[in-house]
Structures are given as structure tokens and as C-alpha cells.
Predict the structure.
Amino acid sequence: MSEVLLFHHALGLTSGVLKFADDLRQAGHKVHTPDLFEGNTFNSIEKGLAFIEETGFDEMRERGVRMADDLPHDLVYAGFSFGVLPAQKLAQTRPGARAALLIHSCLPISGDWSFGPCLTASLFKSTQWTMILFSSAKVTSSCARDR
């Protein structure tokens, strides 16, 4: 199974994000859930975005990128909404990336990706969620719910 680095959304590391990580663990994956907000959670996107703006979007993204420093390189990088910023940057720039799971967001696709030229993009959408999966490996299982 895969090892996943999962980044939270602008509300912080909420119980919904942790439940999603637990679902992945129950499916056999090893999942890391760093807290970019150092324990802060918010009850509105506006409050979460205000917190991000205080620190700076670039700094917050780089904080997420640094979270991967002590982890193996062959990870699946995943993020919900705001968490897509560090997940996508790592997937595009860190050698060894296995896949990118970008949920509720995606930045413009440009440049080379660390998993090379065999890139598959899949868009999954329902009334509750949108997930974009980029991978060069065969995907054996995936799940997403409104979190």
C-alpha cells in the first residue's frame, strides 16, 4: 500500500480530515497528517484564510513542503483545498513522488512533474466533492467523501 502525506484545508486539521486519514489507514495505507496551523481550527473559511494571510500564503505553503523533509520520497501527496498548495508543489518538485491527490482544488499545471512523462490525470466529481488524481502508478483503491 501507499504512504500518504495529507494536508488539511483552510479550517485546519479538523475531525473530518482526521476521519478521512483514518479511512485511508483502514484501507492499509500509512498516512501522515501534519498540522500547518499548530493546533488552530476555524469554523469558517474566511477565518481560516485570514489566519493564512497573517502568516502569508507562500510561507504557509513552504511550511507544508518542509513537513516532508524527514519522510521518504516515494509518497502520495494529498491535500484538501488550501492543502493542495504544498501537496501539488511537492508532487511537482520532489523526486520520487508516487501520485498527487488534489481534492477541491488544483493550481495551474505547468513544468515537469517528479513522476515523469507518464502522467495520468483523472477527475472525479459528485455533488459533494471533486478530486483530481495525478499518478504514474496504477491506482488500486481510492475514496473521498465530503470532509
The chain has one domain: 3-135.
